[in-house]
Amino acid sequence: MLNNWLKIAFINYKKNWLSTAINLFGLTVGLTGFMLILMHWNDEESFEKWNPKKDSIYYFQSYHKKENDYGNNIAVPMAKRAKEVIPGVEDYVLFNGSGIGLKMTTKYKTFYQQEGMTATESFFNFFPFKLVSGTYKNALKGEGVIALSTVAAKNLFGTTNVAGESVKFDGKNYVVTAVYELPKENSQIKPEFIINPVEQIKNDEKNWGNFNYGCFFMLKPGTDLSVLQQKFLKDIFEYRAKLDKDSEGMTPQQYLDMYGPTDSVFTPLDEVKLHAKASWFGTPDFKTIMILFTLSVLIVVLSAINFINLKTAQASQRAKEIGVRKAIGSTRSNLIVQFLLETFVICIASYLLSLALTEILLPGFNKFFGKEMKMDDWHIYFYSFVMVIMVTVISGLIPAMYLSNFKAIETLKGNFARSKHGIWLRNGILTLQLIISSFFIIGGLIVNQQVKHMMNKDLGYSGKQILIVNFRDSNPKPWLKYERLKTEMSRIPGVAEISYGEIVPGSNRSSTSNVDFMDKSIQAQHGSMDYNYLQFMNVKLKKGRWLDPNLASDTIHNALVNEAFVKKFGWSDDQAFKNEIRPGFDSIKYNIVGIVKDFNIRSLRSKIEPVIFFHYKETDWKKMNVYNIQLKIKPDDIDGTVQRIKKYWSGSVEPGYPFDYFFIDQRFAKTFEKYQKQQTLFTILNAMVLMVALLGLFALSSLMIEQKLKDVAIKKTLGASDGILIMGLTKQFLWITLTAVLISIPISYYLMSEWLKDFAYRIDMPVWPFITSLVVLVILTFAVVSIKAYKATKVSLVKYLKYE
């Protein structure tokens, strides 16, 4: 019986070769997209799975109700007190440096080692990398010790058995206490060396307002996260409020409402990559993964719809076969199993083809996302095979039940093609397919428009030809280094102007603190800078004046602010000049002497934050944090000037260190890469959807028009013109297209409005993509269907009317 079913299946595949090819193509493309996106998602979810303690380790984030924002930092005394007073907290590890580089010297060589981090002594209790040499006991306890990865050990010593050896950097000697091997599995935490910032921790251990550290907590088994959050609020945040001298006259709740944080979030270690609210290691983006996965599933759904449509449209060709089989005793269940088998053969063939196609496309996909994925995870095969089974059941069961319901007497009487059975089903499924196609067209156009809007937006500054060079060596007085370099580098041919600014567009490096006025407080970014920095960046002055090097007060208590700062306090521009503010980074009050136009520092996805600009000498700790020099390059010989700067820097400023530089406009452009990739992916998926939908429409229209050839012959005999016949054959499909687009408009409007909400600077919802979708689908539908309709008008009248 099985052999007989397969023979019948292959006869029908051959007879309807076009629809068979379209089904194979559509399912192959859909399953390939599904597998690639599934691999991407699975790869993102696999981070930190290697860690045997992952179920006990949680990443700390804070929540600020007033700003409706999450932070990824904590203060040293908060973490310390949490371990002391909260029963569920077993241990903690703090870190405040990742991706750092140091020039290290051993008795063998000097080498600049990158990708290091600073962490407290319990680090290896949380991240038990494979130990190669030395011991983890007290490996990071106290000053003067360092742990190296096997890579760093080989770079410095040529071997990995180096525990007890000495390394020198920053003028101090460090003893290698441990050598470890980093995990080969996915991890965001892969430091090539680790040092404990003992002195820094000691200076910050009583500073409750210095949120300079990331933190992982190790929780005891059975700890209730909701209870932990409540205790953190009461025993940590409210405790801090009572200690702060600024809390006089306030209740702890009033203090938290003003200064925050107001709540905490604890994310499991292996969920940080995708599901953390805020992360030290990069912005989580689970939403994009889900959008891509949903779109890939929709393509598979479209392919399944094609299958259903084509199978039901072919019903008339199988009617007599079914009638005969029923007449000789075949049961309805036997027929359903037979038709499901025919569907499964197509699906399994598509599955095998999609595996091959995925393997071919994977290198390009890896390059696009910067990954190294391989098809060696059984989950990929399992879930894609489950998808094949689901497609088989869904796309096979509907036509199978429809076909198996034919009555033997009815089908054996005559021409089943004239029956109206199945039309409602085909039309309904075709409408669903076109709804999905319309959504992809609308969504693709809106995504393109939003990305174009961001690319063309006036950023409020000009970073053109501005080169930034970051300091590498640890100068004890970095502001003096900057001032010396400013004088010396201005003599380099091609350098037009020099300045310094703490806030660099496109860079994540920034610090914030509260700024108070009377009973109100806001969070503002710090903008320590040289006198000319804002003019250097071509930022526009809205009102007031710039900082003046001839006024001593401009290095004591005067500042500029941006428009967002003034707006956040609810002032008018004139009121801002009359009010004295007290920033959290200083103990004195500041006067506002100028207001500048807002300009974008971060991605255009984020709103412009309040910023206070002040000279770097106004506070001792800000001049100690001067970390770059910025040079405006003359346009006539940019490459030559960069080479001269590099030669000077590597020879006279930081010999042995890499020349760490970038152009501001190029760095800020990187903030668009994510959205440009989304745009590219949406365009590719859009093309795939339209291709699958149009091929399915062509095959379906071909089958349906073939069923009407006798009607066409009769009408032609009665004198109908080709144009009338073509319109008669296509108008049904045009009405379906029109209905589908009208249904898709509110759905697309809602979904794309939700997507646009993620952008602080977004387009108003345009009307033209909805109109374009209607026009494009109507034209394509007419073009696809009219080709077959035109051929139908050329039928042989004798062939179809000789028996009438």
Automatic annotation (TrEMBL):
PANTHER family: ABC-TYPE MACROLIDE FAMILY EXPORT SYSTEM PERMEASE COMPONENT 2 (PTHR30572:SF18), MEMBRANE COMPONENT OF TRANSPORTER-RELATED (PTHR30572). Coiled coil: none annotated. Residues 294-405, 685-796 form the ABC3 transporter permease C-terminal domain. It holds the Pfam family FtsX. Keywords: Cell membrane, Membrane, Transmembrane, Transmembrane helix. This is ABC transport system permease protein. It is a multi-pass membrane protein. InterPro entries: ABC3_permease_C, MacB_PCD, Macrolide_Exporter_MacB. The chain crosses the membrane at residues 21-41, 289-310, 335-358, 378-403, 424-447, 681-705, 733-752, 767-790. It comes from Chryseobacterium vrystaatense. It comes from the Bacteria. Residues 20-231, 432-647 form the MacB-like periplasmic core domain. The lineage of its organism: Bacteria, Pseudomonadati, Bacteroidota, Flavobacteriia, Flavobacteriales. It is found in: Cell membrane.
